[in-house]
Amino acid sequence: MLWFTEFSAFFSAALAVILLSPSLQSFSPAAAIRSSHLDAYFRPSPSDHSPRNFSYRESPILLNADQCRFEFSDTDSGVCNPSYVHVAITLDFLYLRGSIAAVNSILQHSSCPESIFFHFLVSETSLESVIRTTFPKLNLKIYYFAPERVQSLIAPSVRQALEQPLNYARNYLAELLEPCVNRVIYLDSDIVVIDDIVKLWETGLGPSTIGAPEYCHANFTDYFNGAFWFDERYNETFKGRKPCYFNTGVMVIDLKKWRRFGYTKTIEKWMEIQKVERIYELGSLPAYLLVFAGHLAPISHRWNQHGLGGDKVKGSCRDMHDGPVSLLHWSGSGKPWSRLDSKLPCPLDSLWEPYDLYIHSH
Ligand SMILES: *[C@@H]1O[C@H](CO)[C@@H](O)[C@H](O)[C@H]1NC(C)=O
Ligand SMILES: *[C@@H]1O[C@H](CO)[C@@H](O)[C@H](O)[C@H]1NC(C)=O
Ligand SMILES: *[C@@H]1O[C@H](CO)[C@@H](O)[C@H](O)[C@H]1NC(C)=O
């Protein structure tokens, strides 16, 4: 497990540098939350991000450690094998480089990389060959997510062009994935995992359908507007709950419960209301708050150190929150690959860079 040890050592050193660096000012969690909720809104336009000519290095092939005891049985072959850890990620032209780095990071830090099954949600079928050539040995399945599935449900927003249908694909995991898949980890494309993902996988959800880190100090009122809080049809939605903000970029989802309670329909109903009434300003996130806030299984904050993207407009760099880190999330409008390319990276972008498999073609 030399590679694993090396990576751990690298990250311990890197984190020590970061944590000790006086130049990195801590930013308030509220600022991070604001920044991450901007993420749904201020996606970079396609022109911000160059080529459609993809070139990626092949990811090194990693094998399971002895202790994995992954059973390849004839009866449970393929995706239904109960030993798999299931991970779902979207692939689109805009964030492809991020998705590939995310997958790479998961494999690098897993002691049982062959036991992970990736579910890729795409709206462009041409991306399948990119992912298959970059990760030739990966257990994976590609799902085509038709944009028309949500197009009619997406409310026109201030920045309409930035409302990517694929942002909403996470709402449909329960019906897209095979019925034998009962649990999935959903991850955004602007993350890297620096710990063994099996630890996140094994998190208990208790009676909850979704597990995610919660942020109870955030002013929850701000996520909805007057059309929600002053309308008696809606303003008792959270009655009897203690709703807290959570970020939908990292979620452990019990698909069995999701299917049983029909949450896809519930979310679609809120989207229909939003389309007409405009009860919130953001994209795909508030519907999750409406359905799940206060009913969440809280997961350690180490699994979503979010807000690292900062604000592209101000070009601000963000620091991490206090505490241990297992997953870094560049939510916010700045993305590490764009900043590295522009030679104006933020200090923490150096933690993303080792997972980048993109080959520059100039
Ligand atoms: C939360 O925000 C609302 C409006 O934005 C404000 O009226 C309320 O006082 C705030 N609550 C807290 C606890 O800060
Ligand atoms: C809900 O909205 C109605 C109508 O504006 C208002 O009278 C009522 O006080 C609101 N309820 C809550 C809990 O805010
Ligand atoms: C893509 O990049 C490669 C490597 O630089 C180049 O040889 C090729 O012509 C490019 N293809 C397109 C379609 O631009």
Keywords for this entry:
362 residues; alpha/beta; Spore Coat Polysaccharide Biosynthesis Protein SpsA, Chain A; 7-stranded mixed β-sheet; 11 strands; binds 2-acetamido-2-deoxy-beta-D-glucopyranose
Description:
This protein is of the alpha/beta class and 362 residues long. The chain has one domain (2-65, 79-355): Alpha-Beta Complex (Spore Coat Polysaccharide Biosynthesis Protein SpsA, Chain A), CATH 3.90.550. It has twelve helices and eleven strands. It has helices at residues 2-20, 29-39, 96-109, 127-134, 148-151, 173-176, 197-201, 226-229, 255-261, 263-277, 285-292, 336-341; strands spanning 85-91, 116-122, 139-144, 183-187, 191-193, 210-212, 214-215, 245-246, 250-254, 297-298, 327-329. A seven-stranded mixed sheet has the order 3-2-1-4-9-6-10. Strand 1, helix 3 and strand 2 (116-122) form a beta-alpha-beta unit. Helix 10 crosses helix 11. Residues 1-51 have low confidence and may be disordered. The structure holds 2-acetamido-2-deoxy-beta-D-glucopyranose (3 copies). One 2-acetamido-2-deoxy-beta-D-glucopyranose binds next to loops.
Uncertain regions spanning at least 5 consecutive residues: 1-51
Envelope shape: globular
User: What's the overall average pLDDT, rounded?
Assistant: 84
Number of helices: 12
> What's the gyration radius in Å?
20 Å
As a percent range, the share of strand residues is 5-15%
Q: CATH homologous superfamily, by name?
A: Spore Coat Polysaccharide Biosynthesis Protein SpsA, Chain A
Largest sheet, if any?
A: 7 strands, mixed
Listed once per kind, the bound small molecules are: 2-acetamido-2-deoxy-beta-D-glucopyranose
Domain count: the total is 1
Side-by-side strand order of the widest sheet:
3-2-1-4-9-6-10
Subcellular location: Endomembrane system
Protein name: Hexosyltransferase
Signal peptide: 1-16
Keywords: Cell wall biogenesis/degradation, Glycoprotein, Glycosyltransferase, Membrane, Signal, Signal-anchor, Transferase, Transmembrane, Transmembrane helix
